[in-house]
Amino acid sequence: KAGVTQTPRYLIKTRGQQVTLSCSPISGHRSVSWYQQTPGQGLQFLFEYFSETQRNKGNFPGRFSGRQFSNSRSEMNVSTLELGDSALYLCASSSATGDSLSSYNEQFFGPGTRLTVL
Amino acid sequence: GQQVMQIPQYQHVQEGEDFTTYCNSSTTLSNIQWYKQRPGGHPVFLIQLVKSGEVKKQKRLTFQFGEAKKNSSLHITATQTTDVGTYFCAGGSYGGATNKLIFGTGTLLAVQP
Predict the structure, then answer these.
(1) I want to staple B89 with a disulfide (CB 3.0 to 4.6 A). Which of A5, A49, A80, B104 is the partner?
(2) Residue B33: pLDDT band by 50, 70, 90 thresholds?
(3) Which of A43, A56, A106 sits opposite B88 (nearest CB)?
Protein backbone atom coordinates (compact mmCIF):
# COMPACT_ATOMS: atom_id res chain seq x y z
CA LYS A 1 0.00 0.00 0.00
CA ALA A 2 1.13 3.52 -0.66
CA GLY A 3 1.90 5.56 2.42
CA VAL A 4 0.42 8.84 3.58
CA THR A 5 1.15 11.65 1.16
CA GLN A 6 1.14 15.35 1.85
CA THR A 7 1.30 18.29 -0.51
CA PRO A 8 2.99 20.62 -0.84
CA ARG A 9 6.18 19.56 0.92
CA TYR A 10 7.44 23.09 1.38
CA LEU A 11 5.62 26.39 1.51
CA ILE A 12 6.66 29.98 2.13
CA LYS A 13 4.00 32.54 2.99
CA THR A 14 3.89 36.01 4.47
CA ARG A 15 2.04 37.19 7.55
CA GLY A 16 -1.67 37.68 7.01
CA GLN A 17 -1.95 35.22 4.16
CA GLN A 18 -3.81 31.97 4.34
CA VAL A 19 -2.67 28.49 3.41
CA THR A 20 -4.23 25.13 2.60
CA LEU A 21 -2.38 21.86 3.13
CA SER A 22 -3.48 18.54 1.72
CA CYS A 23 -3.21 14.99 3.01
CA SER A 24 -4.05 11.69 1.34
CA PRO A 25 -4.30 8.83 3.84
CA ILE A 26 -3.40 5.20 3.35
CA SER A 27 -6.06 3.48 1.28
CA GLY A 28 -8.83 2.21 3.52
CA HIS A 29 -7.99 4.49 6.44
CA ARG A 30 -10.88 6.72 7.44
CA SER A 31 -9.24 8.56 10.32
CA VAL A 32 -6.93 11.48 9.58
CA SER A 33 -5.22 13.53 12.27
CA TRP A 34 -3.17 16.68 11.95
CA TYR A 35 -0.24 17.70 14.13
CA GLN A 36 1.96 20.77 14.34
CA GLN A 37 5.61 20.14 15.11
CA THR A 38 7.94 22.89 16.28
CA PRO A 39 11.31 22.68 18.06
CA GLY A 40 9.96 24.40 21.14
CA GLN A 41 6.54 22.77 21.49
CA GLY A 42 7.09 19.32 20.06
CA LEU A 43 4.15 17.52 18.44
CA GLN A 44 0.88 19.30 19.11
CA PHE A 45 -2.43 17.71 18.16
CA LEU A 46 -4.61 19.90 15.97
CA PHE A 47 -7.65 17.77 15.11
CA GLU A 48 -8.86 14.41 13.92
CA TYR A 49 -11.38 13.72 11.19
CA PHE A 50 -13.31 10.52 10.73
CA SER A 51 -15.81 9.95 7.95
CA GLU A 52 -15.91 13.65 7.10
CA THR A 53 -16.60 14.69 10.70
CA GLN A 54 -14.25 16.30 13.16
CA ARG A 55 -14.31 14.10 16.23
CA ASN A 56 -11.36 15.38 18.24
CA LYS A 57 -9.84 18.81 18.55
CA GLY A 58 -6.71 20.22 20.15
CA ASN A 59 -6.15 23.62 21.70
CA PHE A 60 -5.53 25.76 18.66
CA PRO A 61 -7.24 29.03 17.70
CA GLY A 62 -10.06 29.12 15.20
CA ARG A 63 -7.65 30.23 12.48
CA PHE A 64 -6.80 26.55 12.16
CA SER A 65 -9.50 24.55 10.48
CA GLY A 66 -9.81 21.39 8.49
CA ARG A 67 -12.12 19.18 6.55
CA GLN A 68 -12.30 15.69 5.19
CA PHE A 69 -13.76 14.55 1.93
CA SER A 70 -15.75 11.43 1.13
CA ASN A 71 -12.60 9.69 -0.16
CA SER A 72 -10.96 10.37 3.26
CA ARG A 73 -8.54 12.91 1.85
CA SER A 74 -8.16 15.83 4.23
CA GLU A 75 -7.21 19.45 4.02
CA MET A 76 -6.04 21.82 6.70
CA ASN A 77 -6.40 25.56 6.42
CA VAL A 78 -4.68 28.28 8.37
CA SER A 79 -5.95 31.81 7.92
CA THR A 80 -4.29 35.11 8.82
CA LEU A 81 -0.88 33.52 9.16
CA GLU A 82 1.40 34.59 12.00
CA LEU A 83 5.15 34.16 12.34
CA GLY A 84 4.56 31.59 15.06
CA ASP A 85 2.72 29.35 12.62
CA SER A 86 6.02 28.40 11.03
CA ALA A 87 6.28 24.68 11.64
CA LEU A 88 6.24 21.21 10.19
CA TYR A 89 2.62 20.13 9.73
CA LEU A 90 2.21 16.39 9.90
CA CYS A 91 -0.78 14.40 8.84
CA ALA A 92 -1.36 10.89 10.13
CA SER A 93 -3.93 8.30 9.16
CA SER A 94 -5.07 5.26 11.07
CA SER A 95 -7.38 2.30 10.69
CA ALA A 96 -9.58 3.54 13.54
CA THR A 97 -13.24 2.62 13.16
CA GLY A 98 -16.32 4.40 14.34
CA ASP A 99 -16.44 2.20 17.44
CA SER A 100 -12.78 2.29 18.41
CA LEU A 101 -11.06 4.84 20.58
CA SER A 102 -8.80 6.96 18.43
CA SER A 103 -5.77 6.65 20.65
CA TYR A 104 -5.58 2.85 20.34
CA ASN A 105 -4.71 2.93 16.67
CA GLU A 106 -1.23 3.21 15.24
CA GLN A 107 -0.69 6.52 13.53
CA PHE A 108 0.91 6.39 10.08
CA PHE A 109 2.54 9.73 9.46
CA GLY A 110 3.16 11.45 6.17
CA PRO A 111 6.40 13.30 5.37
CA GLY A 112 4.91 16.63 6.44
CA THR A 113 4.58 20.10 4.95
CA ARG A 114 7.25 22.55 6.06
CA LEU A 115 5.54 25.96 6.36
CA THR A 116 7.62 29.09 6.73
CA VAL A 117 5.87 32.37 7.49
CA LEU A 118 7.88 35.52 6.77
CA GLY B 1 -4.93 20.58 30.22
CA GLN B 2 -3.31 17.18 30.07
CA GLN B 3 0.45 17.19 29.68
CA VAL B 4 2.90 14.46 28.83
CA MET B 5 6.49 15.24 29.72
CA GLN B 6 9.59 13.34 28.75
CA ILE B 7 13.02 13.38 30.30
CA PRO B 8 15.70 13.88 29.37
CA GLN B 9 15.20 16.29 26.47
CA TYR B 10 18.53 15.27 25.02
CA GLN B 11 20.94 12.41 25.63
CA HIS B 12 24.34 11.86 24.10
CA VAL B 13 25.85 8.39 24.53
CA GLN B 14 28.80 6.43 23.25
CA GLU B 15 27.90 3.53 21.01
CA GLY B 16 27.37 0.46 23.17
CA GLU B 17 26.07 2.37 26.18
CA ASP B 18 22.50 1.98 27.39
CA PHE B 19 19.83 4.67 27.10
CA THR B 20 16.56 5.30 28.90
CA THR B 21 13.85 7.90 28.32
CA TYR B 22 11.01 8.48 30.76
CA CYS B 23 7.50 9.64 30.02
CA ASN B 24 5.20 11.13 32.67
CA SER B 25 1.58 12.15 32.35
CA SER B 26 -0.36 14.51 34.58
CA THR B 27 -3.41 12.23 34.25
CA THR B 28 -4.11 8.51 33.96
CA LEU B 29 -3.68 7.21 30.45
CA SER B 30 -5.79 4.67 28.60
CA ASN B 31 -2.77 3.44 26.65
CA ILE B 32 0.63 4.59 25.53
CA GLN B 33 2.42 4.43 22.21
CA TRP B 34 6.04 5.04 21.35
CA TYR B 35 7.33 6.56 18.14
CA LYS B 36 10.77 7.19 16.68
CA GLN B 37 11.57 10.10 14.40
CA ARG B 38 14.85 10.03 12.53
CA PRO B 39 16.47 13.40 11.73
CA GLY B 40 14.60 14.94 8.80
CA GLY B 41 11.98 12.21 8.90
CA HIS B 42 8.54 11.65 10.30
CA PRO B 43 7.47 9.73 13.42
CA VAL B 44 7.25 5.97 12.99
CA PHE B 45 5.28 3.75 15.33
CA LEU B 46 7.28 1.42 17.55
CA ILE B 47 4.88 -0.17 20.01
CA GLN B 48 1.72 0.21 22.08
CA LEU B 49 1.19 -0.66 25.75
CA VAL B 50 -2.28 -0.96 27.20
CA LYS B 51 -2.18 -2.83 30.50
CA SER B 52 -1.02 -1.55 33.86
CA GLY B 53 2.53 -2.76 34.55
CA GLU B 54 2.94 -4.10 31.02
CA VAL B 55 6.45 -4.78 29.71
CA LYS B 56 7.25 -5.43 26.07
CA LYS B 57 10.53 -6.08 24.33
CA GLN B 58 11.67 -5.55 20.77
CA LYS B 59 15.23 -6.84 20.35
CA ARG B 60 17.34 -4.28 22.28
CA LEU B 61 14.35 -2.08 23.19
CA THR B 62 12.33 -2.59 26.38
CA PHE B 63 9.11 -0.69 26.99
CA GLN B 64 7.30 -0.40 30.32
CA PHE B 65 3.93 1.00 31.33
CA GLY B 66 3.62 2.06 34.95
CA GLU B 67 1.28 0.42 37.43
CA ALA B 68 -0.74 3.62 37.76
CA LYS B 69 -0.79 4.10 33.98
CA LYS B 70 0.67 7.57 34.35
CA ASN B 71 4.23 6.87 33.29
CA SER B 72 6.22 4.82 30.86
CA SER B 73 9.82 4.19 29.90
CA LEU B 74 11.85 3.08 26.92
CA HIS B 75 15.21 1.46 27.51
CA ILE B 76 17.70 0.69 24.76
CA THR B 77 20.49 -1.75 25.55
CA ALA B 78 23.85 -1.34 23.85
CA THR B 79 22.95 1.58 21.60
CA GLN B 80 23.95 1.61 17.95
CA THR B 81 24.32 4.54 15.55
CA THR B 82 21.08 3.44 13.90
CA ASP B 83 19.26 4.31 17.16
CA VAL B 84 19.83 8.04 16.56
CA GLY B 85 16.63 10.06 16.51
CA THR B 86 13.92 11.54 18.68
CA TYR B 87 11.80 9.17 20.72
CA PHE B 88 8.25 10.26 21.53
CA CYS B 89 5.75 8.70 23.83
CA ALA B 90 2.08 9.38 23.09
CA GLY B 91 -0.58 8.84 25.70
CA GLY B 92 -4.23 8.18 25.10
CA SER B 93 -6.44 10.53 27.09
CA TYR B 94 -9.71 9.35 28.56
CA GLY B 95 -12.88 11.25 27.95
CA GLY B 96 -15.97 10.72 25.89
CA ALA B 97 -16.65 8.21 23.19
CA THR B 98 -13.38 8.89 21.52
CA ASN B 99 -10.07 10.01 22.83
CA LYS B 100 -6.88 11.38 21.39
CA LEU B 101 -3.16 10.88 21.57
CA ILE B 102 -1.15 13.46 23.45
CA PHE B 103 2.47 13.38 22.42
CA GLY B 104 5.28 13.84 24.88
CA THR B 105 7.97 16.44 24.44
CA GLY B 106 10.41 13.90 23.00
CA THR B 107 13.95 12.80 23.81
CA LEU B 108 16.64 13.35 21.22
CA LEU B 109 19.23 10.57 21.27
CA ALA B 110 22.67 11.13 19.79
CA VAL B 111 25.02 8.15 19.51
CA GLN B 112 28.71 8.68 19.05
CA PRO B 113 30.50 5.82 17.25
Answers:
(1) B104
(2) very high
(3) A43
b/e map A37-63, b = 16+ CB within 10 Å: beeeebbbbbbbbbeeeebbebebeee
CATH topology of domain B4-112: Immunoglobulin-like (2.60.40)
Quick one: pLDDT band at residue B73, thresholds 50, 70, 90?
A: very high
Partner A contacted by B14 (CB < 8 A): no
| Domain boundaries, given as residue ranges, for chain B | 4-112
Residue A109 has pLDDT above 90, yes or no: yes
Cβ-based contacts under 8 A for chains A and B: 70
